[in-house]
Amino acid sequence: MASEFLPLPTLSLPRTTDLVRLEQRPHPPIHPQSPALSVMTDLRLVNPVGIHADAGLRDAHQKMISHGIRLLFVHDDDGALLGLVTSVDLLGERPIQCMKEHGKHHADVLVRDVMTPRDRLDALQLSDVQSANVGQLIATMKQLGRQHALVVEVNPANGHHELCGLFSTTHMARLLGMPLSFIRVPQALSEIQYSLLYTG
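-> structure tokens emitted (200 positions)
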């Protein structure tokens, strides 16, 4: 079978070879009329980073730092999605509330104690997203008042919903060249503090 294909020509790298920097890579400008898919993180192409519900907050924070992200998908022993945990959840009011309500030390607070459970998450249908633009998505995120929105599609083979995409207001604002407040109004003091400290 290999004989059916011809190898590509190669060259020795010259001394003047440079690395392409991220900001130099060509990409179309994003504006409110752009397709919503242009600002979606496609989880069919990018592996979602998860963490077990019984993991500690320090482990979750370190995992976010090592991957350069602000959200983790929370799962159980079988890999089933239980919820989401964000940097705001880890660094905001939720750990303190859990410590007060349950008499726990900070080291004993688990991801499951501060995550947003699956039944409280908002999801968009991929079929709606495919025909929407960024402006509609901004309106949706403003209405939700959340930092992230999930995208799902139905697997025709078993009828189950599958998580296939993710929208982040921080990512959208950066691509649009707009302040985060243009898209979303923080819902808690901890989120305002986080926005000032980490999103500039």
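Residues 34-198 form a domain with the CBS-domain fold (CATH 3.10.580.10).
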